[in-house]
Structures are given as C-alpha cells and as structure tokens.
Design brief:
Blueprint: H1 4-13, E1 21-23, E2 26-28, E3 35-39, E4 46-51, H2 55-70, H3 79-95, H4 97-108, H5 112-131, E5 140-141, E6 148-156, E7 159-163, H6 169-182, E8 186-190, H7 197-209, E9 216-218, H8 223-232, E10 238-242, H9 245-257, E11 262-266, E12 272-275, H10 282-294, E13 306-310, H11 314-327, H12 346-361, E14 365-368, E15 372-373, E16 381-382, E17 385-388, H13 395-398, E18 405-411, H14 414-421, E19 426-427, E20 429-433, H15 437-446, E21 451-454, E22 466-467, E23 469-470, E24 476-477, E25 487-495
Parallel strand pairs: 7-8, 7-10, 8-9, 10-11, 12-13, 12-20, 13-18, 17-18, 20-21
Antiparallel strand pairs: 1-2, 3-4, 5-6, 6-25, 14-17, 15-16, 19-23, 22-24
Helix pairs in contact: 1-4, 2-8, 3-5, 3-7, 4-5, 4-7, 5-6, 8-9, 10-11
Length: 497
C-alpha cells in the first residue's frame, strides 16, 4: 500500500519531462522553437513548460507514424511479440506507479487517493487487457455455397490520431492507445494543454518496453493549432477524441473537409442518479452519490451531477447528502487524506463559478458550498456545492458543469423519474437506487445512457464498454468493443472450382 512518505518522496525526486515532442522515437523541439507555460493548480506555481506544437509538427509526427506503419516494424510484427511488449509497458507503469500518479496530480489537481487507482492503476490494467487481445482477435469464415470461400479479415486501420482530455490523461490515454497499438496501428497523440506531463512520461516507458520508434508520437500544444492539424490531416485514418461537444463537432467538420476519416467521440454528460424510496440504505446512497459528484471535484465525464430523489425521502436524503458533502476534505491533492482536490485550471474554475452564479439567479436553493475556497494557497479550489429544488429546464439541470456541483430534483413516481432522467441531450451514464429487482431491470432498459449503475455509482472496469448515447458521443472505449474503432474489415471472396 502506498504511504504518504512514498508520495512525499516522489514529489521531492520527481523529474518533469522536457518541453519537447516525441516524434520518430526522439525528443524534439517544436518546429518554431516555441514553448508554453505550465502551471500547477495545486498552488498556482510554474510546473515546467511544454513544447507549443504547430501544423508542421503534426505533419512530422503523422509522416513518422505512416512510415512506421508501412514498413511493418509494428504492424507486421507477430501478434505474440506485440503482446510481450505491451505487457512490458504495463509492468513499467506499475513499477513507476507513484511517480506517474504524482506527476499527473501536480499537473491537473486530482486527489492522489483517487489518482493512484484511476490513473496509472487503470492504465496498467488497460495495457495488460489489450496485450492479451493481440493474438486472440480472429477473422471469420462465411457460410458460403459449395465452390466458394468467403473470408472476413480484420485488419489494423493505419495511422490513428488520439486527442485526450485533462481530467484523467493516463487512464483515457490508455483507453485510446492500448487497443490501437494492440491491433498494429501507429498513433499520433495530442494531450491536453494543461495535463501533458504523465503522457510524456508514458511514451518514455513505452520506448523502454521496446515499442519501435515512430509507432507512438506525441505532440503537445494548443487545440486550435495541434488538434486542428490532426483533425484536418489527410493521412490520419481514424481520430479518437474525449472532450467537449463543441470540439467534437469541429472534429467532425475537419473530417468532412479532409479525407472523411472515421471520428469517434466520447463527449460530455449530465448524468442522472435516481433514488427510489424503496432503497433500504439511504446513508449509503447519499455517501456514494456524494463521491459520484465530488471526487476529483466533479471533473469526471460520468459524474452524477443530477440527483433525482423520490419526494417521500427528499428532505432526509438532502440532509444526508449535505452531511457527506461537508465531510469531504478539500485541499492539497498530494495529501492522501484529501478526498477532493483542485480544479484543473483558472479557466475551468471561472467557468464553474459562473455556472454556480447562474443557478442561484435561476432560483435553485443552495444547500451548501457555492464558492471558491483556500485562495491563500494560490491554487484553484471550490467547495462541494449542492442545489435543491432545481428546475429541470434550467441550465444547471441541462448543461454540464464539470465541477463539484450537483442539482437535486424531486419526483413522484417511476414514470416521472424516467422522463426527468431522459430530459437532456446527453446519454453517457445514469444510476438507479432501488431494492426492487423488477424496477431495476425496467430502469436499465428505460434510461437513455451508455452505462447504468444499479445501487452503486462508478467503478466499471476495462471489461465493459463506455458508450455515449445522444450527444454524449459514439463508439466505445474499453472492452473488446473498442477494437472496432481501430480495425477495419476486408472480405476475400474466392472461387474454388
């Protein structure tokens, strides 16, 4: 078990990756030599710098990935050999678990108690899972008439572009990288501007594990330059993205303007967790629901940001939820006792505070929280915030806050609960709290969401897909279904006579 002394030692000894890209297996400067400042949300102090990528850098990275793909140094490697290298990547992530977690926390403010499991812990498990797929994905033999043989081959797609967000860069990065690499593709990765360091360290570990040069390239920088260039590039075959709906729409436009590359999007959510009065442990529901919105200060795509509570238990549940919120320890995310860390950036902090102000203007009842705290640290911290009696049509009930803010809405019966839960354009996750097995099954079918939790919230591992419905995206991260995004089918139709 990781101790606080391990965390402190990693902070003291940690190495900040150089302000360089990884292209062709080498660390290189941006084409124009420019760098961008990197600031820690923990205390507002500088945390190294990043290379400010350009269109030229993306051109170099894509050319490197294409060359590596076409000469077969990875795509032509025996699947069992790729498997060994990806297992070695997982081993190295585990060996450097504390270092990677600390580096990520200093970069984006996630509390270390969560980051250890959710970042390197999850990333190592993901690489290990997909390592095992390398030699286990088969094609098909079609049921053809006599004299004909129909073969269906599943092949790698070529060059995969991946754009990942700042909230869980290692975890989500692994969701994109591991299946793409397992199937023999080459990758160009663009990390978030405010959370690139752990992914830059990961690519070092991938090369140490034996990944050939040019197979994985990383270009840091701003979305309007690097992300746009990757989306518009005519030699990128597939683009994988996790982030906001606005950026997702632009990436679809870039695909249409370029080579019609396939684009897979995991976008935002406004996930509803529905608490029925037949659930026998109100305290557990409140405790888990508080964690489902306030851990990582609500900066989680599947955060349970809407709580729908049956009217007969509405006020008791609010009291229990308020108690849990006020018991959260908000503070230095490098302290293992902290249960909610920093907001990732000043920009995000300002956005959350503006939405809190708007919720008050719209007439929602503030139960607790509502403001910035710990300003003397120089960091970005917001108190866990609960609004009750939220209008289901209001911005707070309809739009993603991506912060430690939850709206609580009463309902009277099951039909009303379903209608309220499905009343947004999103469909990423949902939750149901009930002791009625039949109701649980009905709700799973009725809720428009890619993941429905029953009597829990959060925790699905790599064995099951994360799929967005509605404006929460398309395609799947995790599970064997993720391989569909990074492979293509080819039919061989053969006459045997």
């Amino acid at each position: 078990m990781v101790q606080q002394t391990d965390i402190d030692a990693a902070v003291r000894d940690s190495h900040i990756p150089a302000a360089k890209h990884w292209i062709g297996g080498k660390q290189v400067d941006a084409s124009d030599g420019n760098v961008m400042a990197n600031t820690s949300p923990i205390d507002g102090k500088p945390l190294g710098a990043l290379a400010r990528g350009t269109h030229e850098d993306i051109d170099r990275a894509v050319a490197s990935a294409r060359a590596a793909y076409e000469d077969g140094r990875w795509s032509g490697m025996a699947p069992a050999a790729r498997k060994k290298i990806l297992h070695r990547v997982a081993d190295l992530i585990e060996q450097h678990l504390v270092e990677l977690a600390v580096l990520g926390v200093r970069d984006n403010g996630t509390e270390i108690s969560m980051a250890l499991k959710a970042e390197p812990g999850s990333a190592s498990a993901t690489f290990r899972y997909y390592a095992e797929t390398c030699d286990k994905v088969n094609g098909d033999i079609a049921p053809t008439p006599p004299g004909t043989l129909g073969l269906v081959h599943r092949e790698s797609v070529g060059v995969v572009g991946a754009i990942v967000p700042w909230n869980f860069p290692l975890m989500i990065g692994a969701w994109k990288l591991a299946p793409a690499l397992a199937m023999g593709n080459s990758v160009v990765l663009k990390p978030a501007e405010v959370a690139s360091l752990s992914l830059l360290r990961l690519v070092e570990l991938c090369h140490e594990a034996g990944l050939p040069d040019g197979v994985l390239n990383v270009v840091t920088g701003e979305g309007r330059a690097v992300g746009e260039a990757l989306g518009l590039h005519n030699d990128v075959d597939v683009l994988l993205f996790t982030g906001s709906g606005g950026v997702g729409r632009r990436l679809l436009e870039y695909s249409a303007r370029s080579n019609l590359k396939r684009v897979y999007l995991e976008l935002g959510g406004k996930s509803a967790s529905v608490v029925f009065d037949d659930y026998g442990n109100l305290g557990k529901a409140a405790k888990v629901s508080a964690g489902g919105i306030f851990r990582d200060s609500g900066q989680v795509c599947v955060a349970g940001s809407r709580l729908l509570v049956q009217r007969s238990i509405y006020e008791p549940f609010l009291d229990a939820l308020k108690t849990e919120a006020e018991a959260m320890i908000v503070g230095n995310p490098l302290d293992l006792r902290t249960t909610a860390g920093a907001i990732a950036s000043e920009t995000q902090c300002g956005s959350i505070l503006a939405k809190i102000d708007r919720a008050q203007s719209d007439g929602a009842r503030m139960v607790t929280g509502g403001g910035r705290i710990l300003s003397e640290t120089g960091g970005t911290y917001i108190a866990p915030t609960i609004f009750a009696d939220v209008d289901p049509r209001s911005d707070l009930a309809q739009e993603e806050v991506f912060g430690p803010v939850v709206g609580v809405i009463p309902f009277d019966d099951e039909d009303q609960a379903v209608a309220l839960a499905n009343s947004t354009v999103y469909g990423l996750a949902a939750g149901v709290w009930t002791d009625n097995l039949s109701r649980a099954h009905r709700m799973v079918r009725a809720l428009k969401a890619g993941v429905v939790h029953v009597n829990t919230y959060g925790g699905p591992d790599v064995t099951v897909p994360l799929t967005g419905h509605g404006q929460s995206g398309n395609g799947s991260d995790k599970s064997m279904h993720a391989l569909e995004k990074v492979t293509k089918l080819k039919t061989a139709w053969m006459a045997l006579d």
